[in-house]
Amino acid sequence: MRSRTVLVILTAALALGLTACSAESKELPDVTGHRLDDAHNILKDAGFETFDDSDAVSDREPLRDANWVVLEQSPTGGDSVPIDTTIRLSVAKPDDSGVRERLPEGSPVALEMEQQDRQRAIEKREQASEQRRQQAEELGEVKSFVEKYDALIRNNMNAISDLPGLADSIRAAGVVTSNAGVKLIDIEMSLGAYWDVLEATPKQVNDCADRAQEAIRSFQQASDTLLTAEGAAAEGSLARFAQLYNPAVTKYNSGLNCLYKETGISAPTV
Q: Based on CB atoms within 10 Å of each CB, which residue in 84, 111, 153, 224 is the most buried?
């Protein structure tokens, strides 16, 4: 009878020992969509201490947990599991291809990405608005310049247009008359003042002004050439005039059309 009692006691003690050794089970938190460092902290707070983190995209080693997001976990969140269970976490970088689509809706990193999208959209709108403001300001500068000097530009357009007629009159007379000489000198002086004015064009249309200025220098050279169109040099000077003048007209009109383009004012081309 005594041996039977001892057996019962030993059996009960063994049962108690086995119960004491078995791990406690708890509900496993769902940490998908969390930054890896946050996921670890959430799991630790719930009593889970052992993790196995693996890259879902390639074989990278997560070095800084905050740079990674949990895409999957095993066991599944919500299950009741022993606290000594190894929690396997499949992770990736938030900017890896396809990660956004795998994040649970409303999860922390998904919300973080949505906020970043909203912020980028705001910044893009602000940049576009600032760009439009700058463009309007620059256009206003160009228009103000053109309005200020439009009369001078048109007067010089008339002077430039007069040069072929002066060449024809010199050819017909065979000499540079005093009247033609005075007109040519006046044209050169006017073109010189015009060239100086174009030095002050707003920087956004400097290329336009440069083309017009190059043409103006050619017109001045063409005028100088006409002043030498006498005697044996006459035909050569007149031919040289055409070589200088005709290409300059094309370049001048290109520069002027560019300068006037957005002003709403008709360019006084030759």
A: 153
